[in-house]
Amino acid sequence: MDNKIFLISRYLTTFIIILGITFTEIDKLNFFAIILILLFIINTQLRYFLFRDLSVPVFISIIFDFIFGYILYKNYGGLLLPYFIIGIIDSFFLIENFSKYILGSLGLLIFLYAGNELPLYELLSYITTIITLGLISSIIKKEQNRTLKAEELYHRLRKSEDELIKSNQELEAYADSIKELSILKERNRISREIHDSVGHSLSTIIIQLGAIEKIAHDNGEAASLMASNLRDFTKNGLEEIRKALRELKPKEFKEYETLLAIEGLIKDFSKLTGIDVKLGFSKNKWQLNEETSLVLYRVVQEFLSNSARHGKATKISIFMHFSINDLIVTMQDNGIGINEITPGLGLTSISERVGELGGNLSYESKEGKGFLLRVVLKPVKS
What we know:
By secondary structure, the chain is of the alpha+beta class. It contains ten helices and five strands. It has three domains: 4-118, no CATH class; 183-248; 253-377, Heat Shock Protein 90 (2-Layer Sandwich), CATH 3.30.565. The protein has a five-stranded mixed sheet with strand order 1-2-3-5-4. Strand 2 (315-322) and strand 3 form a beta hairpin. Residues 150-177 form a coiled coil.
């Protein structure tokens, strides 16, 4: 019922009270009557606009409404119904518990006592009107509460849906990042194992064939020539294997060396602390030089350490976005946070390191909202 029609009806009822007194008992109007009318109007306005969510002040205000209405009607006349109708409607509309029935009954009793000199049929019509309006107010209030609960539930569902979508996107990005890193690591491992095993074996064969060539030289030039040809064949085979290994090893692996080092750091950190750390990065990447890689590694290391020691975090997310002009690294935890950040030796040190590379470092935190650290680095050729 919180709409323009309801407000207009309240103002109209107040206006009818003033008109009733003015036209029926104009000779009785005095300073005290004007003060009472003003108090009556102020009381109804304060109750609706200021105290409507406070049960006790509303309860007291409605009782004062009935008292003011009784005094005004008995001493200055006017129409009886408008004095009580606002208070009775508010009893059912603004009071949630059983008190509304007590207030409604009290208002009705005071109304009957004030109008005891009126004809019975008029009193009955007034009572019918009051009870009807009270029931309508109660029904409207219930429907309004249901609507508000439905809207609240809808907003909560929308918020949960948005959070679920966001979490799903983050999980997909994280899964893609892990998959990509895993494939590269596996390819690199296979390449290394082939190089260490097959390459070593073939190198040994070459050495042995060289020895055979020298021994066979005394026993016949045919054996010597065969051994020499075999050695050349083996050397050619080794070169082919090396060529294949170079092709197998991903060219972009160097671009991932820093990411793999950071991933190893995160895994070790998670094992030691039990903190859940998620690492993600964009699809486009460019190679970091040795100095930039070291600074980035130290920044992540410092953030993880601070989140565990000072932030008491249980979850950490790290995302690296490689754009054309910048590498933007965003790190956030769900720790206790702090309203005023005083940079310690660690933050100061990594801030200086980032500044030396022409980048910038920023951070923010609020109590109960965790800690957010953002680093922006420029691409530098190796």
